[in-house]
Amino acid sequence: MYGNETKTVTSTRELAKRMDQTHPSAPGRWKKRTGPGWIGWRDEGGWNLVELQVTLLLISLLAGLCYPAFVQWADRVERDLFLGVLASDIRMAQREATVREEEVVLALDSEAGIYRIMRDGQVIRQGKMPSRFQVESNYPGDRILFRRTGQVRGGTLSLRSGGELVGKVIIQVASGRPRVETGP
C-alpha cells in the first residue's frame, strides 16, 4: 500500500540473499549448516593462524616493553613503604618516651637487616629492612636516643640501593619529627 511493507521470507535462498545484503560482514560469510539436527545459519568467520601469531607477537612485545617500568615502579613502592614505616616507628618511639617518661632507643643493625625500638633494654618493636636496601645513619653507634621529654639529637637516616642514595629520613633537631625525602 504505502511501499514500505515487510516481506515474508519464503525460501532459504531468499533468506541467504537477504543476510548477505544486511549483514555488516563480507558477503558469503554466512553458511548454511547441513546434516542431521542442524537447522539454520552459522558464522564462518574467525582468526586464521597468521592473524593469531601477529596478535601474540604484539602482545609479547608490549609485555617486554612494560616489564622494566613495572620493576622500577615496584622498587619505588617498596622504598616508599619502608621509609614511611620507619618514620612512623620513629614517631612511635618518641611518643613512647614522652608518655612513659623514660628513655627510648632506636637501634639499627644493618648486618642483620633489622632495627629495634627498646625501653629499659626490652624490645618494644622490631622492624625488618628490605634486603636490597642499606640504611646508614650519622648517629653514633647507629643508635637514636629519645629523652624522657621526647627530645632527640637531629640527624639523618640514609637509604641506599647499590651505593646510590634513594631516600632519607631526616630527624629534626629537638622536636624529633621525622621527614621523609625520596630520590627519583
Question: Which short descriptors sum up this protein?
Answer:
single chain; about 180 residues; alpha+beta; four-stranded antiparallel sheet; 2 helices
Walk me through what this model shows.
The protein is of the alpha+beta class. Helix content is 34%, strand content 29%. It has helices at residues 12-22, 49-100, and strands spanning 30-32, 41-43, 104-109, 114-119, 122-128, 134-137, 143-146, 155-161, 164-171, 178-182. The strands form three sheets. A four-stranded antiparallel sheet has the order 5-4-3-7, covered by helices on one side. A four-stranded antiparallel sheet has the order 6-8-9-10, covered by helices on one side. The chain has a two-stranded antiparallel ribbon with strand order 1-2. The longest helix has 52 residues, at 49-100. The mean pLDDT is 82.
Q: Sheet with the most strands?
A: 4 strands, antiparallel
Provide the β-strand percentage band: 25-35%
Q: How far do the termini sit from each other? A: 77 Å
Main-sheet strand order equals 5-4-3-7
Low-confidence stretches: none
Structural class computed from helices and strand pairing: alpha+beta
What would the principal axes of the Cα set say about the shape? elongated
What is the H-and-E element order?
Answer: HEEHEEEEEEEE
Number of strands: 10
Report helical residue fraction: 25-40%
Radius of gyration: 35 Å
- How large is the count of helical segments? 2
Give the overall pLDDT as a whole number.
82
